[in-house]
Specification:
There is one protein chain. By secondary structure, the chain is α/β, with parallel strands linked by helices. It folds into three domains: 5-113, Rossmann fold (3-Layer(aba) Sandwich), CATH 3.40.50; 118-224, Rossmann fold; 263-464, NAD(P)-binding Rossmann-like Domain (Rossmann fold). Helix content is 42%, strand content 17%. It has helices at residues 33-42, 64-82, 92-105, 118-124, 136-139, 142-151, 163-170, 177-192, 209-216, 226-239, 272-283, 310-322, 340-361, 384-406, 442-454; strands at residues 6-7, 23-27, 48-52, 86-89, 106-107, 111-112, 129-134, 156-161, 197-200, 221-223, 252-256, 263-266, 287-292, 301-302, 328-331, 365-370, 411-418, 461-464. The longest helix is centred in the C-terminal third of the chain and has 23 residues, at 384-406. The structure holds D-glutamic acid.
Length: 465
């Protein structure tokens, strides 16, 4: 037992039976959720507490002593505040820096640690070349180097630090063309060197497994340790007589050391005004999920809002990316298609459905709907091509005000009505005459949206002309 070792006393007066207490998990951020998910699938009766140390993410290139201190703090919280019966260090970097220290300091508490699965990869590899993706901290740790020396002596192991993957996952970006480009940059050299096994030695990386598998095809197998770690955790619980009684009402608690960023969905957020709004909000500290109807560069969610279930799919995708409902929605996507039915769905039905989902999921949500200044003056739209578009926008305006009243106290709903805005690309200036001489910019529209999101107004319309 190391210096300062003491048997850790569980807080008194908490959960009575030790085996009904939760299992604690921590990681530098959301990476370890893949381990948590695997564990919850395997042990549905177990309560869990997941602590994301997002205030200190990333751990990967911090000094080992610093990571050990952070890991100790996380452990102390999980044991002290939640009375956890076991701790899963759902982070390779923290395991490398701290597992021995934690076991010594919190004697009596079972710990599960993670290290890159070099052994099974080396044993399975036919090409005798194995790629390992992890952080610098993991690669410099004793565990990794001992395992490699012991089990991979006859195998070429290519260690690759991929810190940018951690950043992607923290931003909730796990698919799409941009993500694929970043991931490919790390994988292709491993594949070119003949690696037929790629070990995910950082718990953030299984979140990118879909993209990786697409890139590797049948050239290499991705080794994701999540299920094996979950099985090991179950085994240790059973060995210690700590498994939860079956039928136990299992809780799933998630906490973070960082104040949570407010998250907003911007439909049609990868081009034109939608992009300007999304960029503006991202620059002001919002966590932005951009949606598009196709797999555009920069789209976090691909959703077809002309489909009947398009809005529901979009909302579900946002919840699964965020791990919770978004705080706000900007209904920006709009079209004027020959297909009036599709136009109506995209411009009206889907925004309405998204507002309803947000109102149902949140206690203080905000929706901003982008209308069109033209519908504010009561002129009938005479151009046939724009008739369905304008009618839908007009109804959306009425529906915004209606939603604000119906969901008062739970959802603020406002509308921004741009005039002839010259978008950054895609339109010809001459086609959009300006009545006032001054043409509002996409930035003006974005600022109006932000004012509504940040303020406390509801049931208001702001014309940006
Ligand atoms: N998820 C962590 C790991 O497994 C570390 C990521 C980081 O914070 O750098 O190594």
């Amino acid at each position: 037992m190391g210096e300062g070792a003491a048997r850790f006393d569980f807080p008194r007066g908490g959960v009575a039976a030790p085996n009904a207490r939760p299992v604690g998990f921590f990681d530098s951020g959301r990476g370890g959720v893949c381990i948590l998910d695997a564990f919850r699938r395997l042990c549905p009766d177990e309560s869990t507490v997941y602590l994301a140390d997002s205030a200190h993410c990333p751990y990967g290139n911090r000094e080992s002593a610093e990571v050990a201190a952070l890991a100790e703090e996380c452990t102390r919280r999980l044991l002290g505040e939640y009375g956890c019966k076991m701790i899963v260090v759902a982070c390779n970097t923290a395991t490398a820096a701290a597992i021995d220290i934690l076991r010594a300091k919190f004697a009596g508490v079972p710990f599960i640690g993670l290290e890159p699965a070099v052994k099974p990869a080396a044993m399975d590899s036919r090409s005798l070349v194995v790629g390992v993706l992890a952080t610098a901290g993991t690669f410099s740790g004793r565990l990794y180097n001992e395992t490699k020396a012991k089990f991979a002596r006859d195998v070429t192991v290519i260690a690759t630090v991929a810190d940018e993957f951690v950043e992607l996952v923290e931003q909730g970006r796990t698919d799409g063309a941009d993500v694929e480009r970043v991931v490919r940059r790390r994988l292709e050299p491993l594949l070119a060197a003949g690696a037929d096994r790629i070990v995910l030695g950082c718990t953030h990386f299984p979140h990118l497994k879909g993209v990786m598998e697409r890139i590797c095809g049948d050239r290499a197998k991705i080794i994701d340790p999540s299920d094996a770690v979950a099985r090991q955790a179950r085994r240790v619980l059973e060995e210690n007589g700590l498994a939860a009684p079956s039928g136990h009402d299992a809780a799933d608690i998630r906490i973070s050391t960082a104040a949570q960023l407010r998250a907003v969905v911007v439909t049609g957020g990868v081009r034109r005004i939608g992009k300007a709004i999304a960029d503006h909000l991202a620059a002001r500290g919002w966590r932005v999920l951009r949606t598009s109807h196709r797999a555009d560069a920069g789209a976090d969610i691909v959703a077809d809002l002309s489909a009947e279930d398009g809005a529901d799919r979009l909302f579900d995708a946002a919840v699964s990316l965020l791990g919770r409902a978004p705080d706000a929605i900007v209904n920006n996507a709009a079209v004027y298609l020959a297909d009036e039915e599709a136009t109506r769905r995209i411009n009206l039905a889907s925004p309405l459905r998204l507002m309803e989902r947000l109102a149902a999921a949140s206690d203080c949500g905000a929706a901003v709907n982008i209308i069109d200044a033209a519908v504010l003056d009561d002129r009938e739209e005479t151009r046939p091509r724009l008739r369905a578009y304008a009618a839908a926008k007009r109804e959306l305006l009425a529906a915004t005000l209606d939603a604000a009243t119906r969901h008062a106290g739970r959802l603020r709903a406002n509308a921004v009505a741009p005039g002839s805005v010259l978008p950054p690309e895609g339109f010809h200036e001459k086609a959009m005459p300006s009545a006032t001489g001054r043409r509002p910019t996409p930035g003006d529209v974005a600022a109006a949206v932000e004012r509504f999101l940040a303020g406390d107004a509801s049931s208001q319309v702001e014309a940006v002309v």
